[in-house]
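re: ur question from the group chat, yeah i did fold both. here u go
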Amino acid sequence: MADRPSGSPSDGPVGSPAGRPGAPRPLRPARSGRLSTRLSQVLLVGIGLVLAVIMTGLGLWQMNVFESQRANTAQARAGQPPVVWDGTTARRDQVGEVYGRRIQVTGHFLKDTQVLVGTSSPLRVVTGLKMTSGEIIPVVRGEVTATEKVTAPPTGQVTLTGVLLASDAQPSDFDSASSPSASSGSGVASGGVPMQVSVLPALRLEVLAQSWPEPIVPGYLTASRQDAAREGLPAATAPLPETDGGARNRSYALQWWAFAAFALGMSIVFARTVGARASRPGRRS
């Protein structure tokens, strides 16, 4: 009996893929494995990013609480009953205890000490007040624009109430060439008589001490709205000193921001680890 030639239809079932040249190969699992790895990496980084955004928002909220508490603390200190400075007792050593608080002083103004303070309009009108203790305290009586007339300080004994503050910081952007000057009209008294009024960029006690009589109290007083109105001047705003606020809220804010950075960093680390494991030689994806 003759042998059947190889490759005859009986070698395999009719219609099988092996029997048809050019038939499509089965889909290899490597491509789907790589896609799964990428999706896992994106998911891990996405989770870390969402957590980081949430924690950053919580940190900003805690910082806002901190700033609010700090402002409220300064306002509360300024709203306490005024400390009365009268009599002949020296007050220089008591200044540090009452910075940011209201004080009440009695004395008479030294009109020759009047200066204007500021780098732009309105300018603060500052005059030295000789207290009953013999000490000199700078008083911000109010403010004027560069073209308004400066009223002379009242004569005789006066009693004023205002917030006690330390020296101003020197403005970093001060330009002496463009600052207001007495010749621009700011150095004119209410009666139309020219006054030699200096213009300073900031209220710094060490500068005043060079020309004012001594002793000078290491702080200045910003007169209240009522006292400024009695002299016909708009009241100047007292820049309240910054307080510590809620230190606990500030630490919470820093912690939330540290957690946000940690969450985002760890999600990236996990994503890289997943990719490294998937690309190891000999590992089936």
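okk and heres the other one u asked abt
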Amino acid sequence: MIDPAVAATCTETGLTEGSHCSVCNKILIAQKVVSSTNHTEVIDPAVAATCTETGLTEGSHCSVCNKILVAQKTVSALNHSFTNYISNDDATCTEDGTKTAKCDRCDVTDTQSDEGSAKGHTSVVDAAVAPTYSSVGLTEGSHCADCGLVFKEQEVIPALVPDTNVDFHLNQTGVLSSHRVDVATGAQKDAPALQAVTSAYTNFSGLTVFHGTLANGERIMTVALIGSDGISKVDITLNVVVNTDVVAGYRLMLVNADGTETELSVGSGNGKSSFALNFANGAQIIHLVPIAE
């Protein structure tokens, strides 16, 4: 009867095939011991730990029986390492900005508040603007150059209002009488407003002519060049033309600063009358003196 062979293992001996008598059990072919084969070691390579994943130490096992010869041990995850933070340049005047670092081992980034990075305000002066006759002005102010916050608001200064009033004297039989008239509107303080002479013209802009009666009953004509800044003083002699009916029956006496009067030469024709005036001293006052019959 056959005694079957027993295969050796890594740790156990085996037996060769033998035989014996099935009746008397006499061993006919003795089985011989076969030595154990021992383990066949293979390396289980180490696995490097990452910032977020655990790793393993190097180990080994038998490739035949899979018995673990050297157990692999778990290596803890390394966690991220952020050491070099760089400002994101996003701070404002009043709020801290942020800073960002890249992990020393991987591409993960970390952003956090950059404490104390608020820049503070940068004050700049808003220069005052002087008003003119055609535009308003502004007081001096200030604001932040970065965020625009107004520290001192500029206030509007009204545009200049030109003074177009003219004071003058009339010499009436040796007695000077004082008068004031607005040569831009014809307004008088103590008498009805003078009337505009719409027919008047000259070859210079801004000509404004009024005529009418003063509070004392005397008649006058005002002639002025009015600009955006009021009465213009221009050293130029202009020929002023009006409808003849405006001056008909009157001598035109130019009123001087001292109250004396100088008669103007008047040319007439085709329903128009003209006279020359110089505007170096501004507005001119003409006393309309009736021509004696």
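fwiw on the second one: The mean pLDDT is 92. The first strand starts at residue 2 and ends at 3. idk if thats what u expected
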